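Prompt: Have a read of the protein record below and flag anything odd:
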Amino acid sequence: MANHILKFILSNPAIPSMTVRSKTTSTQYVAARARDATFEKLMDTYTELLKVVSIQDLILANPNNPPSVSLDFLSRLSQKLHLNRGAASFLRKYPHIFHIFYDPAKSQSLCKLTDSTLQISRQESEAIYSQMPLLLDRLVRLLSMSASKSLPLRAIFKVWRELGLPDDFEQSIISQNPHLFELHAAHEPNTHTLRLLSPTPVIPFSAAVDDWRLTECCKEDSKVGQTQLRFSFKHGFPPGMRLTKQFKAKVKQWQRLPYLGPYEEMREKKCSKAGVKSLEKRAVGIVHEFMSLTVEKMVEVEKISHFRKWFGIDLNIRDLFLDHPGIFYLSTKGKRHTVFLREAYERGCLIDRNPVYDARRKLLELVRLGRRGLFTNNLNNANEDARSAVDQHLLLAK
């Protein structure tokens, strides 16, 4: 279907798709995108944060008091965790987050979280559990965008952190609301599908983009005309991106295109010119709403791809982001492709902050701090203990 749509677009240049590519591969298309230094700088730190969070989760999952894991254990996972220079070297980069110590009783070096990191972790957990009604609404909205009002549970597990769900959401949200959700076995072995039992809300859902349209409509100095505002999306292009007259005209024409919103029922997919145009813009609307439901308004492309067929999207998700650089920004830093909702950010920070984001941002700042700020005696002593523990670990390894 995707190839059919692409051939149809290329054979009908009058269709106002944002970008019509000629003979370029997907890799070339990614490489040719306009870069945004602000998002790229954020991703430099964020790639490190993902490694930190992976280790933090391993430590917190340990029943020890305080929670800790052995340096040997982390060293064996170095490759899987993408710790290129080894676990010990990575942990010592972030003394404000990790503390390495030697346990004589176990004759091994262990790693635990610092008091500051434990406090941040508790703050995030408290923020999550304090907004259960919001999380319930978020999960219902996610299921409502699916044509069948159902999604594979494994796909939701891949984005539970992005959605701000508790790690036990299957028990704390799904099982606690049997009037809303039902789990049933899928066609594949050992898989389950989560289904929404009340598909029609009392008050119809409105998409996040509708809130922007309403706000924009009330502005006297609005840059978007009333005729195109009904189906418009907020745009903001990367600094330095060359916007030709032809491109601006294409954007303006695309903004006027009518389409079905993410919560509206699509009865059938039409292969006519109007049907293809509507299908592409509906896909943008669904992905835009999906990202609006996330805590940090960002998600890995691979993760959102698991929802593609369930949302009825027959287009390549990554190319969809690249086709609309005024709405999304795609970064390829690290081992992953990550997409941001451009309108949600200003100078590398979320505009409409929330308690979960604030807690995660504190951990990000500790990552940025690195080894700086080790001037107090307590921190100096902790650093020396870490060096001694690592040296002892290396000695035992020999």
The first strand starts at residue 68 and ends at 70. The first helix runs from residue 2 to 11. The CA atoms of residues 212 and 234 lie 8 Å apart. The two ends are 58 Å apart (CA to CA).
